Amino acid sequence: MKNIPELDKLFDIAPQTTPENLPAIAPETGKNIDQEDDYQLARSTLRNLIYKSENTLDDMIELAKNSEHPRTYEVAGQLIKTVSDVAKDLIELQKKVKDLKDGDPVSAKNVTNNNVVFAGSTAELFKMLKNKDDGKTIEQ
Length: 140
What we know:
This protein has helices at residues 5-10, 31-67, 70-102, 105-109, 122-134. The protein contains five helices and no strands. The protein has a domain at 46-108: Helix Hairpins (Orthogonal Bundle), CATH 1.10.287. The model has no long low-confidence stretch (mean pLDDT 78). The chain is mostly helical.
């Protein structure tokens, strides 16, 4: 960033100097390193959320016991559900990483083919389903 001496004097601050030896940015060595970094970040974030939520939950339960207010019990219940959801997310992350490493494209990409959309009334849908059971061809 460019230093402007007039602004430094105006705001009464010392001029900033830029460091000469900035750390080199690692060159792109491949997609696997990015995926591993992302996995490690996501995993550590989820684990930290679980640990912090457990401490908060203990405090919330203590508060609920002391206040005996229904809202504190409701919030404690919501926090319990949130912690369990984060734990499930952590397990799901493990499964997705395993699928990516194993090269299972169906699990990794969640591919869905041959979707059918029906636009009509319930009576037409019932008629179509009935004809399908009879083995008749359904006209579109």
